[in-house]
Write a structure and sequence with these properties.
- The protein has 8 helices and 10 strands.
- By secondary structure, the chain is an alpha/beta fold.
- It folds into 2 domains: about 180 residues, 3-Layer(aba) Sandwich (Rossmann fold), CATH 3.40.50; about 100 residues, Rossmann fold.
- Strands 1-2-10-7-8-9 form a 6-stranded mixed β-sheet, with helices on both faces. Strands 5-4-3-6 form a 4-stranded parallel β-sheet, with helices on both faces.
- Strand 7, helix 6 and strand 8 form a beta-alpha-beta unit.
- The chain is globular.
- The N terminus is likely disordered.
- The structure holds pyridoxal-5'-phosphate.
- The site of pyridoxal-5'-phosphate (PLP) has 21 residues, from helix 2 and helix 6.
Length: about 325
C-alpha cells in the first residue's frame, strides 16, 4: 500500500471562486433502471455521472488534485509545462485546468487514441506527442518520462500512474459523495482501472466507512479489447498506485457487451457515455444478477459518448 503522502489540505480552498476548476466534482448519482426487469427485486444499480465534470470525464478530479499537490509542494511553478502520458481524458483535464491556471501542457498518447480526443486537446492549445500504438499507454509513459528527464526544471511530470494525489482525489471526493448520495446504503462498488486512481481511492474510503463493502474489479475479457482508458491487468503493466488487495473479485466483460450497454444507455436512458462506462454498467448488472438480497451497486460513468462519435461504435 502506497500511503506515504499526507492528504493535501482541502483543494476547494486553493482556487478562485467562479473558476472552471471549482466546478469539478459533486456529480450526480444516477439510478440506472434499464436492467431492472432482469435483476432480483431490491437490487438497484447506480452510476456516478463523471462525464458531467467540466472537462467531460472522471479524470478532472485526479488532474486537479495532482496539479494542486504540485503547486503545494513547489514541484509546479509558474512558467512550467505539465507533461504526462494519458489515453486522452487526463490530458484533456490537464489542458482545461492548465489553461485556467496559466500552464502550458504537453501530452504523450498512443497514436491510435480517438481522433476526437486529439482534436479536443489541440483546441485547448495542447502539444500532442503521438507514441507507438503497439506500446499502448506504457510506451506513452516512457516518452513522457524521457521528456521530463531531459529538462526537469521546465516540466512538471505528475506521473498519474504513481501519484498518490490521483487516488486521494477519489478517496476524499468521489467516495464521500457516493456515501452521502446513497445515505450510506452502498453495498457494492464496481469499476475498471486505467491508472486505478478511481478504484483505489473509492474502495479505500468506502471500506473505512463500511468494512463489508464488496469491491469488484471490471476487467476486459481480452488483452486487445479496445475499451479506451481501461487496462486488462493480466497482460498490462500494473500502475504503481494499484493495490491488488482491494478487489474481492474480477468481473470480465466482453467488448461486445460493453458497446451494447453503451448503446442501450444512450437509447433507453438518454445517457450518452463511452465504452468504459458501458463496460462498468454491464459489470454491475452481471454482479447484480447473482445477488439474492437487496443491494445498491454503484459504478462510474467515466466519460461522455460525444468523444466517440466518430468511432462508429454507436451502430
Ligand atoms: C475513459 C476512461 N475510463 C476509465 C478510466 C480509468 O480511470 P482511473 O485512471 O481512475 O483508473 C480512464 C482513465 O484514464 C478513462 O479515460
Amino acid at each position: 500500500m502506497n500511503m506515504g503522502l499526507s492528504p493535501a489540505k482541502d483543494y476547494r480552498l486553493s482556487f478562485t471562486r467562479g473558476s472552471i476548476e471549482a466546478q469539478i466534482g459533486n456529480t450526480p448519482l444516477l439510478r440506472i433502471d434499464i436492467f431492472d426487469k432482469e435483476l432480483p427485486s431490491g437490487v438497484e444499480l447506480f452510476a456516478k455521472a463523471e462525464h458531467l465534470n467540466p472537462g467531460g470525464s472522471v479524470k478532472d478530479r485526479a488532474a486537479l488534485s495532482m496539479i494542486l499537490e504540485g503547486e503545494r509542494t513547489g514541484r509546479l511553478k509558474p512558467g512550467m509545462t505539465i507533461v504526462d502520458a494519458t489515453s486522452g481524458n487526463t490530458g484533456i483535464a490537464y489542458a482545461m485546468i492548465g489553461a485556467a491556471r496559466g500552464y502550458r501542457v504537453t501530452v504523450c498518447l498512443p497514436a491510435n487514441a480517438s481522433i476526437s480526443r486529439k482534436e479536443i486537446l489541440r483546441a485547448y492549445g495542447v502539444e500532442v506527442i503521438e507514441t507507438d500504438p503497439l506500446m499502448g499507454t506504457d510506451g506513452a509513459q516512457q516518452i513522457a518520462r524521457e521528456l521530463f528527464d531531459s529538462a526537469p526544471t521546465k516540466y512538471f511530470y505528475p506521473n498519474q500512474y504513481y501519484n498518490d494525489a490521483n487516488w486521494l482525489a477519489h478517496y476524499k471526493g468521489t467516495a464521500r459523495e457516493i456515501w452521502e448520495q446513497t445515505r450510506g446504503n452502498v453495498t457494492h462498488f464496481v469499476a475498471g482501472v486505467g491508472t486505478s486512481g478511481t478504484f483505489v481511492g473509492v474502495v479505500r474510503r468506502l471500506r473505512e466507512l463500511r468494512p463489508d463493502l464488496h469491491a469488484l474489479l471490471m476487467q476486459p475479457d481480452l488483452p486487445l479489447h479496445g475499451l479506451e482508458g481501461v487496462k486488462h491487468l493480466a497482460s498490462a503493466t500494473h500502475p504503481g498506485i494499484y493495490d491488488p488487495a482491494l478487489a474481492d473479485d474480477n468481473v470480465e466483460v466482453t467488448t461486445e457487451n460493453a458497446h451494447l450497454t453503451m448503446r442501450r444507455l444512450a437509447r433507453e436512458a438518454g445517457i450518452l457515455v463511452g465504452p468504459s462506462s458501458g463496460a462498468n454498467v454491464f459489470a454491475a448488472y452481471q454482479v447484480g444478477q447473482t445477488l439474492n438480497a437487496p443491494a445498491q451497486l454503484v459504478t462510474i460513468l467515466c466519460d461522455g459518448g460525444e468523444r466517440y462519435a466518430r468511432e462508429h461504435i454507436f451502430g
